[in-house]
Specification:
Elements: H1 3-6, E1 23-26, H2 31-43, E2 48-49, H3 61-71, E3 75-78, H4 86-91, H5 93-114, E4 118-124, H6 151-171, E5 175-180, E6 182-184, H7 197-210, E7 215-219, E8 225-230, H8 231-244, E9 251-253, E10 258-260, H9 261-272, E11 277-281, H10 296-302, H11 310-326
Parallel strand pairs: 1-2, 1-3, 3-4, 4-5, 5-9, 6-8, 7-11
Antiparallel strand pairs: 8-10
Helix pairs in contact: 2-8, 3-5, 5-6, 7-9, 7-11, 9-11
């Protein structure tokens, strides 16, 4: 068995004590990554690095090798991803599949070779079957094909989870995988061509309000539901899992609550003061009919529950957007 397979972690009560570890975060300059890096440092970790893509393009196999050779981390947290909303998934299915699969595949292979103590893989709710039973349980991950509009992205992430488990069985690589729902919060992507639903709706409602428009148009019927997790809660879950989780089985990370898109639009409109009509456009796809995770495993294994309500999280996100819009830090 490799050195990675012989690593001795502390008990679940005390964890591996990440303060003593060298931690490398891929995608550390991205939306989630910035919060994760900050959370590690607030925890007391003094050796946390987050190299940029321009230095190490992980779609190239030699980049992953150079990355681990240069920093020699104890722990690797893989957050780097190419993702977006339904529109972006429809436009770039090949890109989303290839780049996500290539980055993770090369990195996990190099983690094996470098005998990394622990590899943390961030997966996605998009890997679940289109018609998975509500709430989505980890045991149902393979009970069907993902929703078509995001299947290439979801399948790429799903296969990386298989690779992580296979490498544990054959090589003793210690790896964990977390399945995250849609995230939102300060610092999110508000570009309407690539953004997820919450930042897109915030921007649409604010612009309609400021332009005194009578209506906004929203893709789909408004009937599907989505579960959302505030980004700082997601970062806290990742720190807890890095510290305490050793099981190779995937674990859901979310709020455990869903909301219909129509209700979400009305909530955001009321918060920003847009009083016009909301016109749904069923000629565009709804995506998955419903999404809500069973988060009991995270509560039992990590003592993790989301602490930020959707209403409070939206208030913070809207405030950040408005502040940065005035400072020209958000695309107009």
């Amino acid at each position: 068995m490799s050195q990675a397979g012989r690593v001795s972690f502390r008990s679940k009560e005390t964890g591996m004590y990440v303060k003593e570890k060298s931690i490398l975060v891929t995608g550390g300059s991205g939306f989630l990554g910035k919060h994760v890096v900050d959370s590690f440092r607030k925890t007391g970790c003094k050796n946390v690095v987050a190299p940029r893509k321009k230095e190490f393009d992980l779609t190239e196999p030699n980049s992953a090798r150079r990355l681990l050779g240069q920093y020699r981390p104890d722990i690797v947290v893989h957050l780097a991803a190419v993702c977006g909303g339904i529109g972006a998934n429809l436009r770039f299915p090949g890109t989303f599949l290839y780049q996500n699969l290539a980055m993770g595949m090369h990195l996990i292979e190099e983690c094996r070779k470098a005998q990394i103590e622990k590899t943390v893989l961030i997966g996605t709710v998009c890997s679940y079957p289109k018609f998975a039973a509500i709430p989505f349980r980890e045991t149902g991950l393979w009970n069907g094909y993902p929703e078509e509009t995001n299947a290439p992205y979801g399948l790429a992430k799903k296969l990386l989870g298989v690779q992580l488990q296979a490498y544990r069985e054959e090589f003793g690589l210690v790896g964990i995988q977390l399945l995250l729902v849609n995230l939102y919060g300060p610092g999110d992507n508000f570009d309407l061509t690539t953004s997820h639903v919450i930042p897109a709706l915030i921007r649409k409602c604010v612009e309609a309000r400021d332009q005194e428009a009578g209506e906004i148009r929203v893709w789909g019927t408004g009937r599907p539901t989505r579960e959302f997790l505030y980004v700082e809660d997601a970062a806290r879950a990742i720190i807890l899992a890095t510290e305490h989780l050793d099981s190779p089985e995937p674990i859901n990370i979310g709020s455990g609550e869903d909301i219909a898109i129509a209700d979400l639009v009305r909530l955001i409109a009321s918060k920003v003061g847009f009083e016009g009509r909301v016109c749904f456009d069923p000629s565009h796809p709804d995506g998955q009919p419903r999404r809500r995770l069973d988060v009991s495993k995270a509560k039992q294994s990590l003592a993790f529950t989301a602490s930020t309500s959707l209403s409070e999280g939206l208030d913070r996100t809207i405030a950040w957007y408005l502040s940065n819009l005035k400072n020209s830090r958000v695309a107009a």
